[in-house]
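Recap for those who missed Tuesday's class. We walked through two folding examples back to back. For each one, the amino acid string is listed first and its predicted structure tokens come directly after. Nothing is annotated here on purpose, so try labeling regions yourself before you check the end of the notes.
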Amino acid sequence: MAKKKITALVKIQIQAGAATPAPPVGTALGPHGINIMDFCKAYNSATENQRGTIVPVEISIFEDRSFEFITKTPPTPFLLRQAAGIEKGASNPRTDVAGTVTSAQVREIAEIKMPDLNAQEIDAAMAQIAGTARSMGIQVTN
């Protein structure tokens, strides 16, 4: 059987288990002509166990208007804000400190994010996470 030809690749970030045909899902998928309600039902059932987090999804849309999707790990800033217990990062990260996370929390986030990062080792992944924390005004303590 021949492979289906991909006509579009759409990436969006949605609350886990709470996708609805309203924006951002409807506006992202509507122009491609796929059944938005089918996608919402499939996404919600796939992410039901992660409710309360944001789960990015990569949707491959084929020329016959069918689709398949891959869920990714939650975004690093979301995980850092959750670990630090803050609503948002510092408005001026060079001078302000929005919160702190421990190096153990950074390691835990790096282990969660490892499949989606371009790091070969956990130490390299931790450095990427620490860099994101620094750019958000979150201090990493030992």
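Example two. Treat it independently of the first, because the proteins are unrelated.
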Amino acid sequence: MSSKPPPDRAQRSLALWLSGWFALLFTAGFTAIFALLYWSLARQLEARDSEALQLRLQQYAGIYALAGVYGLESRYNEDSQAPHVRSLFIQLVNRSGTVEWARIPSDWIGADAQRVTVPDGWGGWTERQNYTIRVPRDEEQDLAVAAQVLPDGHLLQVARSTDSRAVLLAPLRHTFLWVGGAVVVLGFGAGLVTARRATRPLRDVIATARRIAATGELDTRVPAPRRDDEVAELVRAFNTVLDKNAGLLRAMREALDNVAHDLRTPLTRLRGTAEIALQSAGGNGAQNDALADCVEQTDDVLRLLRALMEISEAEAGMMRLDKVPADLGAVARDAVELYAEVAEAKPVTLGVDVAGTVPVLADTIRLRQAIANLVDNAVKYTPAGGRVKVRVAVEGKDPATGSGGEAVLTVSDSGPGVPPAEQGRIWERLYRGDASRSQRGLGLGLSLVRVIVEAHGGRVMQRNAPEGGAVFELRLPLTTVMDPMVSTGLPPVG
């Protein structure tokens, strides 16, 4: 397995990715619309000022054509007295560039008039040619200047102060920054919510797949989406695949159960025949060894077939248990004694630690079989010189009332432990991890442990110890009555 860490959840979130692109495109569109609006508004303001100034220029040019400078003077004085008419700068320049007549508004300074320059080469312009320009006055205002060549060759210039376009449009830019930022944030949030709702079925598919991989619960299905779209079709297809897989596995289990049931009778007859032949006189040493080996191997096969049938019965809720009050510590001691010689021969240190009486209501034969399977598994995978320890205690009991709590049995070893990728599957029947390939067995021992414990209303789990080795933990409900039990054991199933 790769040691590369998985990517951050935010980095691989489809909803976040879609929301980011939506916000980016929305921001680009919003900015483009604002830029077009800003440009259009600036053009309209410029055109309005230019048209108003050109209109006044045409009026003064007409007055000059009719009454000369005297008419300009009279009209300017009239306009200056009108409160609704803005004051204008006006001057008349001859072809040599000399100002023959000029009037400067009272709110202008001398430098303002100097900014209204005469264009070079204007003397060569044709009659009625004119122009409009804007000259910066200060940080907040500009000078708008309109000029026209009169029929007699003079240049008539009309100017007035006006707000700078940058200053005039500054509130609009500030509003864009605030409103645009808020709209982008809200758009991103709305896009994220919408994208998360749209991708929720995909997250359900991922969660369902992970749950099945971790727990093996093949009956888990993805909730059907409310909308009938491509994602809903994907969910339906995924659930259909799960249904077919579950059906295939169910058919395989049924076939395995049927084979186990059908093989038990002929194997029992075969064992009986081998025993009779072994007991009869006249066989030589090699024949007797072969018959004895046949009986032993037949017993192993019958034990595995019996375990398969017991697991099937337990999964169907049909396992029969003769529950009586018992001491879990005493049952554990009996199971450990079965492996004392095996552990000593390996050699593996095998010990049991019981913290007082631990009363449970259990079928002692079945419970002892489950504990024996755990001990057998621990001794099998612990290397020579290692240790296996069985501990029995009560956890979670209220010391004041004496109620509550659970009976806990742990089997810990100093072996290699269980790889994380296999921890969710070791309880499946017939499953064997890579480390189990070199050991005898069909992968039924832990499956039988699980079904026996669950039939007693308990649960079993596995973890790896920080210092190394596997720890199997069995938890059962406590009972208030306990009678001593005489131990009779069943061999473990591997």
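Answers for example two:
DSSP finds ten helices and twelve strands in the chain.
Residues 95 and 122 are 8 Å apart (CA to CA).
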